[in-house]
Amino acid sequence: MADVAFQQGRVAGIGSKRKRSSLRAALKRKSAAAFLMTLPLILLISILVLYPAFYSLHLATLNKSMSRFVGLGNFEFLFKRETFWLVVRQSCIFAISAVIFKALIGFIVAHFVHNVPAKGQRKWRGMLLVPWVIPPAMSTLAWLWLFDPSYSAFNYTLSFFGIGPIAWTGDPDWARFSVILVNVWYGAPFFMIMYLASLKSVPEQLYEAAAIDGANWWQRIWYVTLPMMRNIIAITTLFSLIVTFANFDIVRILTAGGPLDHTHIFATWAFRVGIEGSDIPLGASVSLFMVPILAIAAIFILRDVNKRGNEA
Amino acid sequence: MSTMTVDKGAPTRKVKYGSMSRDRAWALRWSYFFLTLFAIFSLVPPIYMLITSLKSSAEISAATNPWWVFHPTLSNYIELLTSNQFLTFFRNSAFVSIFVVTITMLISVPAAFALARMRFWGSATLATGVFLTYLIPDSLLFIPLFKMFAVIGDWTGIQLINRWYVLLFIYPTLTVPFCTWIMMGYFASIPKELDEAAIIDGASWFQTLTRIFIPVALPGLIAATIFAFTVSWAQFLYPLVFTTSTDQLVLPVGIITTLIKGDVFNWGQIMTGALLGAAPPLIIYAFLMDYYIAGLTAGATKG
Amino acid sequence: MADVLLRKVVKRYEEVEAVRGIDLDIADHEFVVLVGPSGCGKSTTLRMIAGLEDITGGDIMIGGDVVNDVPPKDRDIAMVFQNYALYPHMTVAENMSFGLRLKHYPKAEINSRVTEAARMLDITDLIDRKPKQLSGGQRQRVAMGRAIVRNPKVFLFDEPLSNLDAQLRVQMRIEIKKVHQKVRTTTVYVTHDQVEAMTLADRVVVMNRGRIEQIGTPNDLYHSPATRFVAGFIGSPAMNFLPCRLEDVGGKLNIRLTDRIAFPLPGARAARYQGVSRTDKLLLGVRPEHIAEARVHTEPGVEAFDAMLDVTEPMGMETLVYFTMDGTQVCGRVNPNAGAHDGAPFRLAVDLNNMHLLNEVTGVVI
């Protein structure tokens, strides 16, 4: 399609001996126009995304007052700190377990929604997507209040079952559980909606053919649904991995990294060190540790997106 | 693609006869049971916000049944909606979001059109670059951006830090790449014959964009607008980093930094503020759910 | 109203030559159909006339002006696309008037033109509908209406009927012909369907692999194809081609098909092929309607032979019979009452007065 237009440009170049001046001028105008139309985008990306990304690398090599080049000194410092290793561990636990639960719950819920008659699907989908719609900073406040140590609505309810007051955000293990719970609550609807869209695109005849071939419910999921959804599952999971790994709002508001730095993840710790602690180079170094994971996930996403593009 | 955007429900599965229908009836019952559980799980926090917002501080500290309002009162709402400070937060948030949406659309729609239709040198690379940019999270950029704007302030004397409008520069980094990406998808799905017909009818490139592409891709445009708005409205990290004075804060940061005083939590007001802060996206969602969902799924299904 | 001239027009994409230097004169008011298999360059040619593709070499003239560098909107042409390309957000009237509105025509003028075109195409009732609410045939009419209101020098049609079902296609074909009879605008029409080409065209241009194989009236092409490609492409079922050679038997010219089967050529044909080398590999081209059941009294030049039928296809008014001759499948058309049966022997007769003789190597009709 559009590559025809691209080739026009080439062909005009080849036939330059012929007098095609006005058409060439028109083409030139066209690419000039195209360039102008994308210029704000290019400027935005290069000045406010690419430049800061590289600037971050530079910052990470300076000392706290940013007056002296210290090379890898910040990283050396980080490696020696116990908190850093806590953050690495917690970031991985947080991101991986949250993504797994989001993916599972999203898949299950999507199936249930897909199962009910089409008339009701809209209503259920509408309710189930609410967690994703509320700004996470706002909903995390509600969770914080639900977890409140003295007036906790959860503990109030659990006390009827004889389960005794839980320090949801006070105890390191429970705090880890809580931040993951809130993240799953917030992110599962996104998976649900993606899976639902993908489920609807599986042709009904495939299920009918599988049923005629004698496949039971479970085999239909395994041999029809999952292979058909493979790509969307991969993209959604990788995408969610990036977002979860880089999460800030939930942990910041729910525990602010506490108790005793046990729930800090890269983003919140970088904020604590870089902004609150005014050690910008160290903060930059901390957030740079996200890059490898993000890059790997991004490469896989890009591969899948391109694959989809080629199939289309 | 405009046809697939507003997708009302899946094909209905007909109830079959005999044992099949019995199995299906049970499957349906289980589905409803679990869906109800999940819906409760989803809705507990917002409902709890509402419950708490209707309580007085006295009732909250009395530690009665937290799930019930015994003496409903609107005092929290009245107090917040008459507080200049809260209204300033609201106004800042509204300004930031509306301006960011405008900026985002002005940047991403022409760019998406150029990338989808007017192939030029490097356009494929740029399209991929746009998608990759979308994957770069705010938590990677906030420190260098903060330092950058501090340095700009030192050099030029134009102090942008701690001004709400600094966010107008920063939020587009979150909204533009995604909006460009989904608009590209929508534009690319418009049959090429349509712009050829327009060209033969005598339309210029600009007229093709404004009179054909934008109206035809309107569902995509709405989805992108909603996305840009909700992202700007919900953003928390950047305003927390860039703004500190109470008159410059946007809603999420304002609620958290001013309503939480030390370790004194005025939960009634916090929940009211949170609910009011959640209201604009929720209202948009309630009225434009299909567009909202289209925008959500477009990122992965387009392109 | 204008003529369209193509002079040595070439289109090259990278290394691929899509159109390899074609010359074509289309007279004013003429209805010309470009036909050929997909990839033959017919659509590219049309798009070059429209200005949607720029030309690599040669000249295109519309109404006497060279338009090589003229952008589409200034060529004064209108185009109807295969998928109609109606603007989905505009009503029928808005679709039809879009081009005029862009050119800032007065409102009254626009209205009268749209009304007139709608009346001509019988879509007056649909004028306020959106394309979504129209059937395929109605959309096609609107697309034509959009072309008509512009009152252009040239109409360009790019496979306009291929998205319609068979019945509608026949109806719209007639419709297009009627419109052309009324407005008399020079028309270039691209299709892959030879029936469309035959029924619509004043002249048909058969294209193959970026070249023009033959230009002629529908009857010319059917009765005197110039090449094997044209002979095989025009007509359905397609012409049979049987390997053969010529031999002299007792002063007479015979055409030998197999070791067992050879026919004497009728006088006119014999005279015409006298100069052909007896050793050349040749092809006998016979249309299915010239292979029929043998009659008791045969006319001169009609030669009877026996064949073992493989398959018969009753079509109602005729029955198609298929048999194999020396490994080549041959199709004939016989009277449905002639008693042809699958797998049964049958006596057929070939009318050599309507035969074609082709050079197997060059594919040229002799």
Please indicate the count of domains of chain C. Answer: 2
Helix share bin of chain B? over 70%
Instruction: List low-confidence stretches of chain C.
Output: none
Name the helix and strand elements of chain C from N-terminus to C-terminus, one letter apiece.
EEEHEEEHHHEHEHEEHHEEEHEEEEEEE
Describe the fold and architecture:
The complex is a heterotrimer of chains A (312), B (303) and C (366). Chain A has 312 residues and is an all-alpha fold. Helix content of chain A is 77%, strand content 0%. Chain A has 15 helices and no strands. In chain A, helix 4 (82-115) packs parallel to helix 9 and helix 9 (172-200) crosses helix 11. Chain B is an all-alpha fold. Chain B has 16 helices and two strands. Chain B has helices at 2-5, 18-53, 57-61, 75-81, 84-117, 123-135, 138-156, 167-170, 172-188, 192-200, 205-216, 218-234, 237-242, 251-259, 267-287, 289-301; strands at 260-261, 264-265. Chain B is globular and about 75 Å long. Residues 1-17 of chain B have low confidence and may be disordered. Chain C is α+β, with helices and mostly antiparallel strands. Chain C has two domains: 4-227, 3-Layer(aba) Sandwich (Rossmann fold), CATH 3.40.50; 240-359, OB fold (Dihydrolipoamide Acetyltransferase, E2P). Chain C is built from nine helices and 20 strands. In chain C, the strands form four sheets. Chain C has a six-stranded mixed β-sheet with strand order 6-7-8-3-9-10, sandwiched between helices. In chain C, strands 13-12-11-14-20 form a five-stranded antiparallel β-sheet. A five-stranded antiparallel β-sheet of chain C has the order 15-19-16-17-18, with no helix packed on it. In chain C, strand 16 (302-314) and strand 17 form a beta hairpin. Chain C starts with a strand and ends in a 7-residue tail after the last strand. The model of chain C has no long low-confidence stretch (mean pLDDT 90). Chains in contact: A-B, A-C, B-C. The interface between A and B is large, with 110 and 109 residues.
